[in-house]
User: Fold HD domain-containing protein from Pseudonocardia ailaonensis.
Amino acid sequence: MPDEIEQVLASLDGVVDPGEPVDELSHALQAAGLAEAAGADDELVVAALLHDVARSPLLPDGPHDRVGARWLAPRLGERVAWLVGAHVQAKRWLVATDDYPLSAVSTESLRTQGGATADGLPLDHPWWPAAVRLRRFDDAAKIPGAPAPTVADVLRIVARLA
Assistant:
């Protein structure tokens, strides 16, 4: 299974969400590095790494939070999948409840994701605070040339969960 994760990560190299300053692999590694530096547990670090896994050309099209969660559940478990599935909801909540900055691309996608809201979200779920942390790592992980762990570094963490 770490080989499968490595293959999907490799497929993100050079995949750019138009308008964002880094490709999806750099974004994933930066997000994982931010989570690790913040003292997150392995599941949150891996969820940060793979939150946009559905942007891989190897996975089916569809809402990337849901596609990613479905793909990850049998591979890395319920919590990693739930966190990935909730990261868009966390964005919607943060924008609705905080003066939360988004990139232009993320602002545009917010419209198609239902807009800012605090209604109908799983705010009482025990993993919700981790989903909000994941969202913050996600939005901070868009800096060209920022330090980040290597693929080998993060695959060691994935192997601990496998």
User: Anything to note?
Assistant: The chain has a mean pLDDT of 97. The chain is about 60% helix and 0% strand.
